[in-house]
């Protein structure tokens, strides 16, 4: 599964945090590392990067509030209570709506 998105302005809204062989990539400026934890206990956690401009969107802000309630404020990778597919679809809808 590839998480790299090509955009017209060449600045992706999200990219995969690890490459295909599992090596971690450096977080580029303007991005926040996010760990999509999923809603069910059996969901696999997936890491990816989200551009900071998307954090001000109301649906993402609501997700961040929910994450703060569920996981609290912790340093490091931001955990969100959402599966990776749903988060990717939300980001796609935000981007395509502009």
TrEMBL record:
<dbReference type="Pfam" id="PF02519">
    <property type="entry name" value="Auxin_inducible"/>
</dbReference>
<comment type="similarity">
    <text>Belongs to the ARG7 family.</text>
</comment>
<dbReference type="GO" id="GO:0009733">
    <property type="term" value="P:response to auxin"/>
</dbReference>
<protein>
    <submittedName>
        <fullName>SAUR-like auxin-responsive protein family</fullName>
    </submittedName>
</protein>
<dbReference type="InterPro" id="IPR003676">
    <property type="entry name" value="SAUR_fam"/>
</dbReference>
